[in-house]
């Protein structure tokens, strides 16, 4: 055996080892909220956690990671200031033709919603447009929407005041991290 073939074998195993490390890191990094973010949000706002599970998780996922046509609403890449200007969900794997057809009526470059800068912006959006279908949007009580917003933002890593986020302070709470 020559030195050349031994080095080639070592390089090949190094690539495989590096690939294994990268894949393992991806496998343990779930989309959406972190375990600590979820635990903190559940502890600080149990009603928000329950409401999120009942009203939001079936479309957006237990971790807020986004499922099928629903965008990610918690975690990295979620709650961007402006919506992405594309026709896919937050997870491109889940893109569908129905979603593409739905977005063809939007003027290119026109925002699908207003900017998400403060907790008030998020509340204004979810309290008028969620849950879906449209026939039930806006049907929760204001305190239920605030509980969901509190849960989402705490799980997302936004520092919330000890008294929680409400209409009294929501305009002062920046959600862009």
Number of helical segments with 4 or more residues = 7
Overall pLDDT metric: 81
CATH topology value of the largest domain: Cytochrome Bc1 Complex, Chain D, domain 2
Q: What is the percentage of strand-forming residues?
A: under 5%
Largest sheet: none
Radius of gyration: 21 Å
Termini separation: 56 Å
CATH architectural label of the largest domain: Orthogonal Bundle
Can you offer a commentary on this structure?
With 177 residues, this protein is mostly helical. It has helices at 3-27, 35-44, 46-55, 57-60, 97-103, 119-129, 142-156. It has seven helices and no strands. It has two domains: 1-30; 33-172, Cytochrome Bc1 Complex, Chain D, domain 2.
Question: What's the structural blueprint in terms of helices and strands?
Answer:
Layout: H1 3-27, H2 35-44, H3 46-55, H4 57-60, H5 97-103, H6 119-129, H7 142-156
Helix pairs in contact: 2-3, 2-7, 3-7, 6-7
Give structural attributes.
177 residues, mainly alpha, Cytochrome Bc1 Complex, Chain D, domain 2, 7 helices, 0% strand, globular
């Amino acid at each position: 055996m020559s030195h050349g073939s031994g080095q080639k074998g070592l390089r090949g195993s190094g690539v495989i080892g590096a690939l294994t490390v990268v894949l393992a890191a991806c496998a343990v990094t779930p989309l959406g909220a972190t375990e600590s973010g979820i635990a903190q949000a559940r502890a600080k706002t149990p009603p928000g956690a329950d409401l999120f599970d009942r009203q939001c998780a079936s479309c957006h996922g237990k971790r807020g990671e986004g499922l099928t046509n629903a965008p990610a609403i918690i975690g990295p890449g979620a709650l961007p200031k402006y919506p992405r200007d594309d026709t896919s969900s937050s997870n491109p794997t889940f893109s569908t033709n129905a979603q593409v057809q739905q977005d063809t009526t939007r003027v290119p470059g026109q925002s699908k919603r207003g900017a998400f800068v403060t907790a008030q912006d998020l509340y204004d959006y979810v309290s008028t447009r969620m849950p879906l279908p449209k026939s039930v949007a806006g049907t929760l009580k204001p305190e239920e929407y605030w509980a969901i917003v509190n849960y989402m933002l705490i799980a997302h890593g936004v520092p919330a005041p000890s008294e929680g986020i409400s209409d009294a302070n929501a305009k002062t709470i920046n959600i862009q991290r």
